Amino acid sequence: MLEIKNLVVQIEDNRILNGLNLTVNDGEVAAIMGPNGSGKSTLSYVIAGKADYEVLDGEILLDGNNVLDMSPDERAAAGLFLAFQYPLEIPGVGTMTFLKACINAQRRTRGEGEISTPDFIRKVNAAADKLEIEKDMLKRALNVGFSGGEKKRMEILQMALLEPKFCVLDETDSGLDIDALRIVSEGVNALRAQGRSFLVITHYQRLLDHIVPDTVHVMSKGLIVKTGGKELALELEKSGYADYRSEAA
Fold first, then answer.
1. What is the pLDDT of residues 67-106, one digit of tens each?
2. What is the DSSP string of the chain?
3. What residue spans define the domains of the chain?
4. Cα of 183 vs its chain's centroid, Å
5. Closest Cα to residue 245, out of 86, 91, 39?
6. What confidence score (pLDDT) does residue 209 get?
7. pTM, rounded to two decimals
8. How far, in Å, CA of 24 to CA of 142, rounded?
9. Which CATH number is associated with domain 2-248?
10. What is the mean pLDDT of residues 46-69?
11. CA angle at 173 for the pair 72 and 33, rounded to the nearest 5°
């Protein structure tokens, strides 16, 4: 599904990723954990195509195609989705208008006609009900005045509607209370399927209690320094990252 080979990235002459290698298989949920400053969010941004990051070497292959040769919108059309740690507010852009524009952009890329308004409304309402999103939220400008939990639920709603093949969740648990964490996690788990993979970036085991990973990777100083099963996250919760900082040196 996704294969990263020898990825070297810097920003403003500050080297962040140092020859990172990572493989996420079809249908797999892989978690990345690590201390602050290890490069976790940088990795998510580079996969999605955020500007300002300079790729010095390496490849990011999605189904064998190097996404580094694609623009951000082309990556999205190819099936990449990034859920941000801090979703942006977009004043003046209605939530429903935004969602419909996203769906139709994907449909046009696939050579399909635009979704009809009745079908769109049914699709959004069904997904919103599962995520316990109030209908009033759908009538407001995108993310404007939303709580942290509401913003994260809105991103999972976008993911459910777009049905991407590779989903990157960048610290989705940040700022969520217990109830919001449960709702968001249930939305993610409902999308787990063969043909769709997830890269879950987090500091804490608590998210992985809800979104149980197949694989856990420890990242430090721009490298993957250890890989294991879900029990590795429990080990990190108890012992911290001190041992892995030295391994990356």
1. 999 999 889 988 999 988 788 899 999 999 999 999 999 8
2. -EEEEEEEEEETTEEEEEEEEEEE-TT-EEEEE--TTSSHHHHHHHHHT-TT-EEEEEEEEETTEEGGGS-HHHHHHHTEEEE-SSPPPEEEEEHHHHHHHHHHHHHHHTTPPPPPHHHHHHHHHHHHHHTT--HHHHTSEETTT--HHHHHHHHHHHHHHH--SEEEEESTTTT--HHHHHHHHHHHHHT-BTTBEEEEE-S-HHHHHHS--SEEEEEETTEEEEEE-THHHHHHHHH-SHHHHHHH-
3. 2-248
4. 16
5. 39
6. 86
7. 0.87
8. 31
9. 3.40.50.300
10. 93
11. 80
pLDDT tens digit sequence for 179-195: 878 888 888 888 888 88
Please identify which residue in the block is written with the tokens 């694609």: 70
What one-letter code names the amino acid at 187?
A: G
Nearest to 65 by CA among 80, 46, 53: 80
Tokens of 12: 């403003």
Count CA within 13 A, CB hemisphere, residue 27: 3
Look up residue 21 and give its amino acid.
N
